[in-house]
Amino acid sequence: MTSSKLSLAASVRDEILSHARDGAVRDPPEEVCGVLVGDRTTDSVSASLPVSNVADEPRVAYELDPAETVAAFDEAEDAGDEVVGFYHSHPDSAPVPSATDREQASWPGYVYRRSRPSASGSRKSLCDLLDTGNLRFPLT
Fold it and tell me: Who's near 77: CB < 8 A, 6+ residues apart?
């Protein structure tokens, strides 16, 4: 990331929230996760790639499937794009970073986005940039 703002295409925001809703309606609800793809020099996200959550307790944690994550990196690079960061959902809590989220955000310079769908359809999300001390910044 080169600035304090990240441009997220509306279609990507909608895809992530749809994916988050899919996880929230499961019984029990589960966190979903994926990869954010775009251009790191312009701080923009043009696509999202869902990745399976292979955490032992997906209701309260996420772990990106390693093979699918590598495939997402390859797919982004094959399209001439870059991986900008990662996303996951909080189906039962606010989209603020938990202690586990902070611990797992281990790739400096990548964005870590959390989303929480709501029954009213409102959009709640928050991004952090790890290498600036977990600075929260707006999505445009």
Answer: none
How many CB atoms neighbour CB 80 within 10 A?
A: 7
DSSP string, 3-64: SS-BEE-HHHHHHHHHHHHHHHTSSS----EEEEEEETTTTEEEEEEEE-B--SSTTT---B
Q: Active-site residue among 31, 63, 77, 82? A: 31
Tell me phi and psi for residue 31, to 5 degrees.
Answer: -70, 140
Task: Assess whether 31 carries a catalytic annotation.
Answer: yes
Picking from 73, 89, 78, the residue whose alpha carbon sits closest to that of residue 37 is: 73
Per-residue model confidence as pLDDT tens digits over 95-113: 777 777 777 777 877 888 8
Residue 131 confidence (pLDDT) above 60 = no
Q: pTM for this one?
A: 0.84
Write the single-letter amino acid at 3: S
